[in-house]
Write a structure and sequence with these properties.
Blueprint lengths: L14 H11 L11 H12 L4 H11 L3 H10 L11 E6 L2 H4 L3 H12 L12 E6 L11 E3 L3 E3 L4 H15 L1
Helix pairs in contact: 1-2, 2-3, 3-4, 6-7
The chain binds FE2/S2 (inorganic) cluster.
């Protein structure tokens, strides 16, 4: 029998997803299972590519939290996608120190190269480009993250071109 959690408003969570949630919740005392909220949201995003409001509600229900509290986590952290993104999410830091060291120019170069606006996704679904907050590498500006994991430093226009072309080739 399926143990999927579903309500009229919430996206169903598969048994596999629930098993992963349970492993995260088990890391905390029973009365503090809400501490697993970031990990659960990360699992949802890993499996679905983004975190919909329905998924937020499902996570809230699972953890016994108000949906708004989950939404506050999703919207506070850059790494959670609140809408579908491309195969490659390119996040360029435009926070204050980077703002004066080429961050906005790197963001613009990427957008121009890909023919999209910030937060846009290419028509082929391959690339999403967006600004992001400080990545903790201000001295390496312009800096960016690929798919929330791979940090790229000193991103000149040439290096940005090489990155995008390399990612495209890797997909072909
Ligand atoms: S402000 Fe860009 S990495 Fe810190």
């Amino acid at each position: 029998m399926s143990t999927a959690v579903a309500t009229a408003a919430a996206a169903p969570l598969s048994d596999a997803t629930l098993a992963r949630f349970a492993r995260e919740v088990a890391k905390y005392p029973a009365e503090q299972k809400q501490s697993a909220v970031m990990a659960c949201l990360a699992i949802v995003q890993q499996e679905q590519g983004w975190v919909s409001s329905e998924s937020e509600k499902a996570v809230a229900e699972y953890l016994g939290m108000p949906p708004m509290a989950v939404h506050e986590v999703t919207t506070f952290y850059n790494m959670y996608n609140q809408k579908p993104v491309g195969r490659f999410k390119l996040a360029v830091c435009t926070n204050a120190p980077c703002m004066f060291a080429g961050g906005p120019e790197a963001l613009k170069h990427l957008c121009d190269k890909l023919g999209i606006e910030p937060y846009g996704t290419t028509a082929d679904g391959q690339f999403t480009v967006q600004p992001c907050e400080c990545l903790g590498a201000c001295g390496d500006a312009p800096v960016m993250l690929v798919n929330d994991r791979n940090m790229c430093s000193f991103m000149s226009n040439d290096k940005l071109d090489q990155l995008v072309d390399g990612l495209r080739r890797a997909e072909d």
